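Structure request: Peptidase S9 prolyl oligopeptidase catalytic domain-containing protein, Micromonospora cremea.
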Amino acid sequence: MRHTTARTSVTGRTGGTTVSRTGWAWLLPRILAALTVLVCSVLVLPAAPANAAPDGPTATEVSFAGNGGVVLHGTVLAPVSTTQRRPAMVMIEGAGNRGRRELRLAAEALAQRGIVTLIYDKRTEGYNLLHRDYSVLAEDALAGLRLLRSRADVDPARLGMWALSEGAFVAPLAASRSTDVKFLITAGAVGITPAAQTAWGYDEQLRHAGVSGSFTHTMRVTAVRMTIGAGIFPEAFFDPAPVWEQVRQPVLAQWGELDREALPRESSQIIRQALERGGNTHYTIRFVPEVRHNLYVTANGGFDRLARIPANYGDYEASWIDRLTHALPNASADPAPPQHIPSPTLTPLAWYESPWLQLAALLVFLVAFAGYPLTAAVRRIRGRRGAPPVRRPARWLAATGLATTLGFLVYLFFVMATAAHVVGPVLIGRPIAWLVLQVLAVATVVATVATALSWRRHRRDLTRADRARLGLLAAAGLLFLPWAAYWGLLIP
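Returned structure:
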């Protein structure tokens, strides 16, 4: 078979100019050489700007040992391109154990802007509803910082911390203990004690729900003080101001203008004054428009909890970090948003407010109010007839007293568990549940009076056992009066 070799000519047109294969042979090596020079020049750059725009973050699961050897699990989110050293941050979540998912959206947004971020699950050993230690949590955060520092894609000169809400109690402690922390960024930092902040937050939520009157005082003052006295409010009187005085790193403190939890105006003033007392004038205080406590989007004036971030989330932070490589920031502060009421002053409990006395009163109520119908049922089972002549008011007292006591405990703990975000429908300035409890409390007082009068009228007709049962019931009713007044059930 005869083979012929055809000589082909490849041409291309660029702007009307014909390029032959011979031309490409001359041009292609020069293009490759130029690209090689460009790539090499990128590889030798010591750092990339924080506001670089990578294609997207990569996620790496990590584990590290925190304070006391407790193993913590987290995720490092980093820009796809890891050929350059990047700024990096340990991100510390707010109160509770929501885990790293609470900060995932924010961490991804920051990573997309060229910042390596570490988010991790908070310890459960040594952190719960009854116990926490911000000093221990600070050591955990520093352990995370050491993990980031060991990464090849992290620039140790631009290694910092980012903290939300309760995390902003922790991050200043960590920053004051280690020079490896080069900057500090906070969102929704609180400048007052956790107890005062909780009380203020209750008031904000209840005011927004249209609640007024005694229930507001019960939640804002009585309930908070009682939980402190009972020892079930950990770190209640932690004062963040002295810790902020020890912070020497540049600080970017941010609050949402619609923050309903962290007292933006008061907290920013306290933190600013504490930094200046410590000689730190390298701070930026910023109030972000139209966002809530965690700088997320809000559709309800800051009172909702939407899991959505603004489109430009992280732009300012990345730019601020990038500017640190050129010069430390000078002190600056945005005008603070208005604050409806100041933080409350929580006084110590008086002797009659002792949690032990409160518990004793509740036990008396349960024994007396629940015991009366139980003993009546036992009498019937045994075939004993002849109920005491005062049975009708006594039954009402037992029923209304028991319903009020149990209903109060359930509703109070429910509202506290939701941080007053859920109170139910409101009528004439009161949650309907609270209004029902107030009506029951009044009925209990009326039934107490009726039982006492009937007992006195028929005391000669009562057996010794009946006197004992009714005496305990009436005593519980009399004790109920000051107790209900103290908790606001008999106050408008």
